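Lab notebook, design round three. We kept the backbone fixed and only want residue identities now. Task for the bench partner: fill in a sequence for the structure below.
Input structure tokens:
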């Protein structure tokens, strides 16, 4: 397993521990700037990779999470136990100070983003294809039984149009979806239908009900390109369709 693939597995694993009893996501806005992360959030550092600097900061009178990555990679994670049928929409706001000039989601060497938001799903292993099942069982032997088996990664890209989607170059268990491209500087509001996005990414492999969401992970990474970028994240919330 490559270092990057191992890092993806570690990110998945981080959201499988201590599952929350409901769908609530602790808000950053109620915390103090410069203080500790709200309960439920924790930083995940990757082996042998410098971590971004995560800080709670004030932005227009509201506390938000800032992630500064300089040739670094890592996430802040929040465990969940949520059924998309009950809470299908994930909403948040984010912004970046720049995009990464040398990033390219189609290549392993360019798998960096100014901002990422992972959503992890617990697809039953027995429903996977034979090859995927073998890989998942091997990974769970190493990393634990609660390792999630599928993820969508929403990104702020540098070159691909919003709506572009592709498999992560390291694993076919992570689907990358471009939400924003270029135009850094301003806050952008997102609201994603997790049921619809899961079916678009994994529906051919998993035609049944969309499985539970086991967690989210947010941050940025620039370790492949060696560049620097800062991302800010506001509160996240799971809710119903309007």
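Proposed sequence:
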């Amino acid at each position: 397993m490559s270092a990057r693939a191992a890092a993806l597995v570690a990110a998945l694993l981080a959201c499988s521990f201590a599952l929350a009893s409901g769908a609530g996501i602790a808000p950053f806005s109620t915390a103090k700037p410069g203080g500790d992360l709200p309960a439920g959030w924790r930083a995940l550092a990757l082996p042998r990779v410098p971590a971004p600097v995560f800080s709670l900061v004030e932005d227009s009178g509201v506390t938000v999470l800032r992630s500064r990555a300089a040739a670094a990679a890592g996430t802040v994670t929040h465990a969940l136990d949520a059924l998309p049928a009950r809470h299908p929409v994930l909403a948040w706001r984010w912004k970046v100070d720049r995009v990464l000039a040398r990033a390219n989601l189609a290549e392993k060497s360019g798998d960096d983003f100014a901002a990422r938001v992972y959503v992890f799903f617990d697809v039953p292993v027995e429903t996977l294809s034979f090859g995927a099942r073998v890989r998942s069982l091997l990974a769970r032997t190493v990393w634990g039984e609660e390792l999630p088996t599928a993820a969508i990664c929403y990104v702020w890209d540098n070159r691909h149009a919003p709506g572009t989607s592709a498999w992560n170059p390291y694993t076919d268990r992570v689907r990358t979806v471009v939400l924003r491209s270029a135009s850094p500087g301003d806050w952008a509001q997102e609201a994603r239908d997790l049921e619809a996005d899961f079916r678009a990414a994994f529906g051919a492999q998993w035609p049944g009900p969309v499985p539970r969401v086991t967690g989210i992970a947010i941050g940025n990474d620039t370790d492949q390109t060696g560049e620097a970028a800062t991302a800010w994240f506001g509160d996240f919330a799971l809710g119903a369709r309007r």
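Keep this in mind before ordering anything: The chain has one domain: 3-239.
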